[in-house]
Amino acid sequence: MKLRPTAPFSHPAWRLLPGLGIASALLLLATAGLGALLWEASLPDVSQLWGSRYLRTVITFTVWQAFLSVLLSLLVAVPVARMLARQPAFPGRGGLLRLMELSLVLPSIVAVSGLVSVYGRQGWFTGIASDWLNVSWNIYGINGIVLAHVFFNAPLAARILLQAIESAPASQRRAAAQLGLGRWWYWRAVEWPAVRPVLPGLAALVFTLCFTSFAIVMTLGGGPSATTIEVAIYQALRFEFDGSQAALLAVVQLLICGFLWWLAARYGLTASLLPDRRVASHSSRAGRSFWSRLTDGLALGVFALFLVMPLAAILLRGLPGMGSAFFPQGSFSVNPALLDATLRSLAIALPAGLMSVGAALLILASGTATSRSTIRRVTDVTAYLPLMIPPLVLGTGLFLLFRPSLGNSSEGLVLVTLINAMMALPFVLQMLRGPLGRLDSASRQQADQLGILGWYRWRWLHWPRMRRPLALSMAYGTGLSLGDFGVIALFGSPGQPTLPVLLYQQLGSYRVDAAAATGLWLVLLLLLLFSVFNLLGASRLSLRRTANSPRTVQEPEHA
Amino acid sequence: MLTRAFTLLFLTLIAVPAFAQSTPTLTIYTHPSFAADWGPGPAVKDAFEKTCDCQVRYVVLSSGGDILQRLRLEGKSTQADLVLGLDTGTMENSRQTGLLGHHETDLSALDLPINWQDPVFVPYDWGYFAFVYDTEQLPNPPESLDALIAAPDDLKIIIQDPRTSTPGLGLLLWMRHVYGDQASAMWQQLKDKILTTTKSWSDGYYSLFMSGEAPLILSYSTSPAYHMAVDNTDRYQAVAFEEGHYLQVEVAALVQSSDHKELARDFLEFMLTPDFQRHIPLKNVMYPATDLGDELPEVFSHLIQPSEARYFDPKTVTDNRRQWLNEWLDAMTR
Amino acid sequence: MLEVKNLVFAYSGQTDPWSFQFAAAPGQCIAIHGASGSGKSTLLNLLAGFLEPRSGDILWQQESLRNCPPWHRPMTSVFQEHNLFEHLNVETNIGLGIHPGLKLTPQDRQAIREALQSVGLEGFSKRLPGDLSGGQRQRVALLRAILRRQPILLLDEPLTGLDREARDTLRQLLLEQKAKGVLMVLASHDEDDRRILADSTYNL
Predict the structure, then answer these.
(1) Gap from C12 CA to chain A (nearest CA, Å)
(2) Which end of chain A is least crowded, N or C, by CB within 10 Å?
(3) What ipTM is given for this predicted complex?
(4) Are the beta carbons of A161 and A86 closer than 8 angstroms?
(5) Mutation test of the interface with chain A: which of B154, B196, B200, B285, choosing the one with the most A Cβ atoms within 10 A?
(6) For residue range A100-134, what is the model confidence (pLDDT) as tens digits?
(7) Domain of C192: which CATH number?
């Protein structure tokens, strides 16, 4: 028997332990942060949860608005994803995808200003609607909150759903195309099975995001009756120094969101997959007729408009200040403040993105390495902890824990990078979970037999299929950190600001034009980032496609 | 470009401890608008460093509340020598931490609407909370709190939440000072005119007010100074209310556990000199704490002159804030 | 010598477990015969190590393979379909059989080229499996199994569903391997396959 070469890192422990380590670290961090807060304060009086009318309303309202937002976001996202999947040649499709990726990572103050310019009392759209259609609405209140949440989350959801539908096994799609399935049956046979495994996690993700929403809820909520738990936590910590109440509310938040994630991990993600044979993409019959192209086009146009209008408002508002932002006092030297802030932001965001992608891969790998579903589920849910624990609570707890050694500003930036990576982890995980888990059992068996293990398996089986999702998740990870204000504000920054800090500085001192310009610059930078990563993810594939034109030929029938 | 970014980051990381070796470093916790490039921070730093043979380092936290919070969390091990950016709302809580020391500064140069004799806190600027209106949308704004409350409900105003924002708390105290126990009833009447209650002043001012969402916003009486002096527009004006306006004083204090207390005291004294104060009016857009004479920019003479400075002593605020806040919540959510 | 001794297996919920027992020598082909659902594929998967038996043992040259992971067993499987990595081209698919990290010597690459040429697939090395016909794909799968040079080939309906010409080519390839001393375990419905390839039959 010939001695076969063994693959590097092929011992199962290499798959299991790093991810498990990261998950445990997150768990430890969360417990320690929360625990330190409880330790410092007295034990909370749990009875105030049902005793206080205020807390009761806060909790009910938080759940209610999050529920509505999830419902609407998914109601928008599912049809959009289906239409995008069945219209692969829709003009401007690529542009629309970039816009969809953008909305989530926009700093909320920039996005809200855009939304208000369109849908606010003096908004363009409100004007048109009341003049032409005689419809009037008030954005301030639950409408505005849900509208903003749909603006932020529906595109994210649609993007992830599209990725799921597009990766439906081609054999299924082909069969459906041959049978000439109509829309409903195509949905039943192809789209729903592809969407179903990601839907519970997606719903939990959007729910958690809306549940923990803060500034948007306050700005558009209309008054203190629109108060989320995060606001109450902020109030308890910042204004009343009531650590025990903050911890109590944080635990409530953790329990509600954690329970949902647990459900999602239990009921989602069990798709039986067939090997994905790559043949020419078959658009369904449902998408081909003139009529369906027209209606899909119109609906996607409306959706694009919904996303573009606020961005256009941001553009119009930012343009006047753009000149002086880059060339102060009309000089031709590039403004170092804006440029340095940009570079500083990138220096934090790129490593943070890289770290979150790396951590997500390791966590997912450890999920495939064990057959114990409990370990897998715990690892899974743990990775979403950063979304569920208010950063303020975590930060405060960590300060208590690590003082006096924390807060040195030199450690600060490293810490900011780490925490940004941690905050991006849930999103990145959501994007990578499907593609990484998509190794069918036939391929797995072959790989086992051929000894394609460890590094080799990653290199030859995962990496070639994951370029695109990796690029997208890298873009999200980096983009989220680039637009981050919360984390850096929490730990304090040295005098030199990052872009969002610069934006808030300008806002805080009446420099409205400059702030609008910085906001626009941030949006453009994010757009650029997503485009670059999209190109990086696609380049190899498109090269191969042109070098390999027979791929577009129909597969021989006698297969 | 990436290399440059990393070099920059690296330098940021390395630079700070390196300085600490040679000359003493005065670490000041402050908020973003003070430390911004165009704020008073950099100019003040340069001016002070010329006199002291030291380095001034700012640690920027997002608000006065955050400065206090950080101080509480770090306790005696804090690296701050001085905190700058607390105000009359957060003062008393800061004092109660026991972490701040006496300033021993001569306060006779102060020029505030009230008499200031505090042993711990040195004011560096002040201003009034006021409603700023858009003259193009609202040529005739209400001229008193009474008139505002009695105005028809289609007049919309933007305020900030007292739970999360300094001016928001200011309005709460203002109403309380004017109406006493009737404040809750007044809030209920005002409620339907409130378009929304934003988290911070910036959210309301930038996202809503400047987009024309409402013609009236809770802000500072000095806000128009910036628009007049820098934006060259007198479109946005504050309206003087007959009942008088609530006063905000911004203060600094030295940290008891600091190794550089003398330096910190020097800074507090320097704070009341023209070299510091001249940067306040246009860079911080507040009134200077001392009389600048001719140096006070001309636009400041166009600002409203409140008939009365409304002011609770900080201890009263601390003792009652929670109660008042709960009454406000109750009135607003009923 | 490959010896399967009292190998017992049942899927969960299966009341009546299967029990397998047979032996075969190098250079021989043993055909597994039985109706569908009688456990042919299960047996091949047990041999390959994809399934875990309840009891019994598999011996190769007197050594137990029972605790050997699939990648250490001296065998290669070829199924009716799904034998190839669909995202990798023909050459890479074959190459991964020679070295699991595709660290190929020039001689290896030469061998792949010649092998492709010998089965009429010259010039297909950069194609993806999806662009090939079923017969072409099976030829590639078999080439990979052969170039891997393992003493045992596990064949699970490898020729089912192919046209006459493809079958003939593949049978020829398999006969060559047998002549070289490779032991083959063949599960096939096809009377001709068994008649042409097998030396003995094991009835389930």
Answers:
(1) 16
(2) N
(3) 0.88
(4) no
(5) B196
(6) 888 888 888 888 899 999 998 888 888 888 888 87
(7) 3.40.50.300
